[in-house]
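Study this fold:
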Amino acid sequence: MHQLEGRGTAADAPHAVLWWDRLVAGDPAAGRPRPPLDGDTTADVVVVGAGSTGVWTAYYLLEADPSLDVLVLDADRAGAGGGGRSAGAVATRPLGDPDAGREDVEEDRQRDLRAALRDSVVEVGGVLAAEQVDAGFRYGGLVTLARTFPAVDRVAARAAAAPRLGDEERLLDGVGAARHVRAEGVLAATWSPDGAHVDPVRLQRGLLDVLEARGARVAERTAALRVSPGAVATVHGVVRAPRVVVTTGATTVPGAPGAASVVRSGALATEPLPEEVWQEVGLAPGVTVVEDRHRPLQLVRSTDDRLVAGGAPDDLLRVADLLPAVRHHAVTHVWTARHGVTGDGRPAVGLDAGSGIAWGVGAGVGGPALANLAGRVLADLVTGAGSALTELPWVRRPAEPSRLAVPPAVRDAAAAWADRAEERRGRVPALAGLLARRLPR
């Protein structure tokens, strides 16, 4: 174990995912993969990818029609992908705000999307409670901190725009922010009730148990080799189904719409912190804290009183500057994740009615709330429900990469450049700001 600051650094800590360690510590059998596919088979719907979006899609398919024969496939184990490697923040902004504020999206459609994202925070908690899935879900709200003057302008603009979009987002000064978390150098903040925290691995694996209890089949360690209209070829056999849903995150399967590029995120977890440290930090369970930057930093308090931080892998040590009270406490886990994104960096879901192939790309970047919404939209598209959710602005074909698209590595470097400029000079170079705005947040 190493400290956030001291002889060791967080980068030296063991590369293990906290959520998996906690899962198998309580029950070693809980992490064992389910049996792979056993030869050729058929289904009404096959979901390729048992990450957050795939599991939620299967859940809502059976909610819509319990008689459906649903088969869920995963190349590894559910929870091993990007969705299970998040910090567990269930929030709407800026973790999963794909279209609000875009000039090319009408304000009423932005308002519909914001409402759907707010509903998803509540929906995640409601489903877990109804299905008795113990994933440590806690409501607590979302606090966004501004520590530079450009960040103050951004959070103030969002608070001013919130009523038009139906959001509740209150602007706070430094004193008001300290009532939620006592961080260094905070100039302003916003608070929204639309935030919670969850253990993402227990969520995904718990929902798979629910699906199996309802008659769904789950095959892990079953990689898809190719998707075709009406069929999925895997390493263990061919699945024939009139509807195929592809939610494979950073992994592209031949024959199916997939990610145009891949972005990386990181997370760390400290040892359980004593109560006197939490009293000094002032962070209550369930509260999600986000430092407003071009590469945002997320902070949450786990159910076993660890501080969990998520963000760009090389930004995680900023935790020591933000919360000095945790500076000399041990970091026990550090992990990274890969997320697939579209060419324009925004999430997309869709269905090709002719081929029967549906897809979800990029929802994993936004965390459990956005993945839940993606699952609801995909289920409605596949079953032909024609709900208001299928009219949201991100229901489309995934944006294709173009010669004008900015590669994720370039966008990420520009975001880091913009953040350094803000901190040192109080302003963002125009080019850095333009490129950084294309980075999925």
About this structure: Confidence is low (pLDDT under 50) at residues 6-11, 94-103. The first strand starts at residue 2 and ends at 3.
